[in-house]
Specification:
294 residues; alpha/beta
Length: 294
């Protein structure tokens, strides 16, 4: 098993640790500080590691550009049952480490869960698992991710198979389940004595939920209250998924909407993360809009 500090040896990881910050939080805040000082714009790239080839290509790209790289793995791809890549969380971390060593890349590597929530793993949806069974599986998956050295967890309970078809999950329920999963993850992390980790929250765009700006504010406000009520005032998501015009079937990033979401998230100390960046027509607008991750 690799310790989280052994995933990469970049000085930023130790600097983040010395300040009591997770690596992703530290890098994003450092990026924004440098952006303001140098009047330039940057966005952190997340790669979807659906194969070893993608892992290798992503690390080579990061090395070529002297940039950090973030790997965001869904539970369909990497999980305790092996996922469709055949890797569990521990094997995934080890694979990234070995591939980085093989090409001499020692830059910052952020390893993350993507869409950690009930029914977002195919077998849970196809077999129509009950809520408690699905949530229990997700909790075990998050535990394995934390213990194996992941840096960030995307907590995404925005799908509810118990609702009637076409219904959108109430935002208060999203808040409640998000808090439940974060509370569980933090209790496990602290029990194991592991360093702080980052969190990403928010809806998967194709399922609706945070598209409305008022609902967006309601979600973050409710999340803040819920975490405080559970004595987690020191825990807050660094990334919030925003509906920025892109999904499985579109290719235009909306800089106007993105800019408004960036401003709203900044009030809470968070950055906006855009999903479905693969075939976007105007990728340069991500950074210009202040998007933290894509």
């Amino acid at each position: 098993m690799l310790a989280r500090s052994d995933v990469d040896t970049h000085p930023l990881r130790e600097k983040a640790r010395s300040e009591g910050l997770p690596l992703c939080d530290y890098i994003l805040k450092l990026m924004r500080k440098h952006d303001k000082a140098n009047n330039r714009f940057t966005t952190l790239l997340a790669a979807c590691p659906n194969s070893e080839a993608v892992i290798k290509a992503s690390l080579r790209s990061a090395k070529r550009n002297r940039a950090p790289i973030k790997f965001a793995a869904t539970l369909n791809q990497v999980d305790t049952d092996g996922g469709y890549t055949g890797m569990n969380q521990f094997q995934f971390v080890e694979t990234i480490k070995m591939e980085a060593e093989s090409i001499g890349f020692d830059g910052p590597i952020i390893i993350a869960v993507d869409h950690g929530g009930p029914w977002l793993k195919d077998i849970q949806a196809s077999e129509n698992w009950p809520l408690q069974k699905a949530m229990d599986w997700v909790k075990r998956s998050l535990e394995a991710a934390i213990e194996s050295g992941y840096d960030l967890l995307h907590v995404d309970p925005t799908v509810d198979r118990t609702l009637s078809e076409g219904s959108v999950i109430p935002i208060n329920l999203v808040v409640e389940r998000t808090v439940e999963l974060i509370v569980h993850a933090e209790a496990f992390r602290r029990k194991k004595g592991l360093p702080p980790i980052s969190y990403e929250v928010g809806t998967e765009e194709v399922h609706g939920g945070l598209a409305d700006l008022n609902v967006f504010d309601q979600f973050l406000g409710g999340l803040k209250t819920g975490l405080l009520e559970n004595n987690l005032k020191d825990v807050w998501p660094i990334l919030v998924v925003g509906k920025v015009g892109t999904d499985l079937h579109t290719s235009f990033f909306d800089p106007e909407v993105a800019g408004e979401l960036v401003r709203r998230a900044a009030k809470f100390g968070s950055f906006i993360k855009g999903h479905y960046t693969d075939y976007v027509e105007n990728p340069h607008d991500y950074a210009l809009s202040g998007i933290g991750g894509a």
